[in-house]
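Saturday, quiet lab. Running sequence design on the structure tokens for the scaffold JK sent over.
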């Protein structure tokens, strides 16, 4: 326990106490925008079909353009890219609210939704990239790097539980427009604060000359990613499919039981347990390598999801879903850690964004498919999608060859190795403590 606390102290010493808080608040709009847009459009237009279209194109915009923003961050630095994206996203979100309240036609409303999704600042993937870069610059060991992934994964989990909950509360207390307006304000303030934080200098970008110094000619083609990177993206898409299928199944079962309001609470319980287990993952000894963690997490997801097929009442649903949440964070954290270990530093933000987009894409597709299956076959039809996705994820983890060591040297590119880290008095590296 003491060792785990010291490890996380080393992580906070690297980033400073303010950066995790700012990045967490900047992540909330990502979790609020899709759900909030669906509620808003459904209420203002009276059409669930229109609401689904707007929410769908918003997700599609994020999936398609997320990696583009990541690539731009790799080349030009996080600060200008996040500042620009935050400004566009805040304006687009505000325009979506105004359009919905003003009765805008479905097609232009969907177009605004697409811009909103395409401009979402990828704070989660970018924060991982920045924190990992800080750890490597300080010469931190793999235990600290692993704790970085655990902390970032926990912040993601909590944001995706709290975000929809805030939307629901705002919708009940006032109007969905209040929730989306709040999301626009959070993006404008906290995504900008994240961009302007002093640690942004460690992700200042790698222009063509920087890539040439790193051993790649300025005009050279893009290096092919290792096979494990593509396998991890597929595994994350399947994880997203589990999320979407569980959402559809939980909604269908609680509606069948006459307590539809419980759906969000059940799903939140799963997220809370997932976040807690993710934070505890930092205590796992280094001898449990990433390959073993990947296989164990996907195996646990399969075993723990099977009882969903036989769950027909509320309290067993709470129990099964809560326990299942314990398998989710370890898989997500391990998947992002595998990505970080396998890709070259000059493409880390893009690769992290691609991984996050895979998760969103899998969730969106499965939510639509599982919802239809729930209508035809009941909640078990949706839950069967979750079990099938877990089985495929385990098969992928077992079949993929995971390199025993990093395929690229850890650390920053020459253009970014400009400062030496300070040393924390307790023995851990520090760079921005107190800011």
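Result came back. Writing it out in full:
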């Amino acid at each position: 326990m003491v060792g785990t606390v010291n490890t996380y102290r080393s992580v906070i010493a690297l980033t400073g106490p303010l950066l995790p808080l700012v990045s967490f608040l900047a992540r909330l709009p990502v979790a609020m925008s899709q759900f909030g847009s669906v509620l808003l459009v459904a209420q203002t237009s009276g059409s669930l079909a229109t609401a689904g279209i707007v929410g769908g194109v918003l997700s599609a915009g994020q999936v398609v353009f997320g990696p583009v923003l990541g690539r731009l961050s790799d080349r030009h630095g996080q600060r200008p890219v996040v500042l620009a994206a935050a400004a566009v996203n805040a304006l687009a979100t505000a325009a979506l609210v105004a359009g919905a309240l003003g009765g805008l036609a479905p097609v232009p409303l969907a177009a605004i939704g697409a811009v909103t999704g395409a401009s979402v600042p990828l704070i989660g993937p970018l924060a991982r990239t920045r924190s990992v870069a800080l750890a490597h610059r300080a010469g931190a060991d793999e235990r600290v790097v692993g704790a970085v992934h655990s902390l970032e994964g926990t912040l993601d989990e909590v944001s995706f539980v709290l975000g929809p909950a805030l939307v629901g509360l705002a919708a009940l207390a006032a109007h969905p427009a209040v929730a989306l307006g709040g999301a626009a304000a959070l993006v404008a303030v906290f995504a900008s604060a994240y961009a302007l934080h002093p640690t942004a200098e460690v992700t200042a970008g790698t222009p063509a000359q920087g890539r040439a110094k790193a051993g790649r000619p300025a005009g050279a083609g893009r290096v092919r990613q290792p096979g494990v990177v593509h396998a991890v993206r597929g595994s994350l898409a399947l994880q997203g499919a589990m999320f979407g299928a569980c959402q559809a199944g939980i909604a269908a079962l609680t509606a069948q039981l006459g307590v539809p309001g419980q759906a969000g609470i059940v799903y939140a319980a799963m997220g809370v347990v997932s976040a807690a287990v993710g934070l505890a993952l930092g205590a796992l000894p280094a001898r449990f390598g990433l390959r073993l963690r990947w296989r164990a997490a996907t195996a646990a997801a399969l075993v723990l999801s099977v009882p969903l097929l036989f769950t027909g009442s509320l309290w067993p649903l709470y129990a099964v879903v809560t326990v299942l949440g314990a398998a989710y964070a370890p898989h997500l954290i391990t998947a992002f850690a595998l990505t970080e270990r396998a890709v070259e530093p000059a493409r880390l933000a893009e690769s992290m964004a691609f991984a996050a987009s895979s998760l969103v894409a899998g969730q969106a597709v499965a939510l639509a498919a599982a919802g239809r299956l729930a209508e035809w076959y009941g909640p078990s039809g949706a839950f069967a999608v979750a079990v099938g996705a877990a089985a495929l994820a385990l098969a992928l983890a077992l079949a993929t060859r995971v390199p025993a060591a990093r395929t690229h040297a850890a650390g920053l590119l020459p253009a970014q190795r400009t400062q030496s880290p300070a040393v924390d008095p307790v023995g851990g590296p520090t760079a921005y403590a107190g800011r």
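Notes for JK: DSSP finds 15 helices and two strands in the chain. Confidence is low (pLDDT under 50) at residues 412-435. Ask whether to fix the surface positions before the next round.
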